[in-house]
């Protein structure tokens, strides 16, 4: 089974590519509603000052794992931060990642129901 950070990294990579394609095509990304508890928990752990938001420093410190560079993480952070307020609401971030889970969303939903 994948570790949480590996799953997040896969989602980050998928999210980056899908986000760029959607922007190019100007299509809205779909959203999903279940299976997000794990993301809320992960993002709460990343939120070191418990303000319900991730600064880039918190985002980078938590997700830097040597696969994505700091520049790639920064690019992703600012592409998600549509209002450019330098903070990502953890609920918004969970919603963003849920759009890129594919079949993993069904797995996470099943785990939540156990």
TrEMBL record:
<dbReference type="InterPro" id="IPR039862">
    <property type="entry name" value="NECAB1/2/3"/>
</dbReference>
<protein>
    <recommendedName>
        <fullName>EF-hand domain-containing protein</fullName>
    </recommendedName>
</protein>
<dbReference type="GO" id="GO:0042984">
    <property type="term" value="P:regulation of amyloid precursor protein biosynthetic process"/>
</dbReference>
<dbReference type="GO" id="GO:0000137">
    <property type="term" value="C:Golgi cis cisterna"/>
</dbReference>
<dbReference type="GO" id="GO:0005783">
    <property type="term" value="C:endoplasmic reticulum"/>
</dbReference>
<dbReference type="Pfam" id="PF00036">
    <property type="entry name" value="EF-hand_1"/>
</dbReference>
<feature type="domain" description="EF-hand">
    <location>
        <begin position="34"/>
        <end position="69"/>
    </location>
</feature>
<keyword id="KW-0479">Metal-binding</keyword>
<dbReference type="InterPro" id="IPR002048">
    <property type="entry name" value="EF_hand_dom"/>
</dbReference>
<dbReference type="InterPro" id="IPR018247">
    <property type="entry name" value="EF_Hand_1_Ca_BS"/>
</dbReference>
<dbReference type="InterPro" id="IPR011992">
    <property type="entry name" value="EF-hand-dom_pair"/>
</dbReference>
<dbReference type="GO" id="GO:0005509">
    <property type="term" value="F:calcium ion binding"/>
</dbReference>
<keyword id="KW-0106">Calcium</keyword>
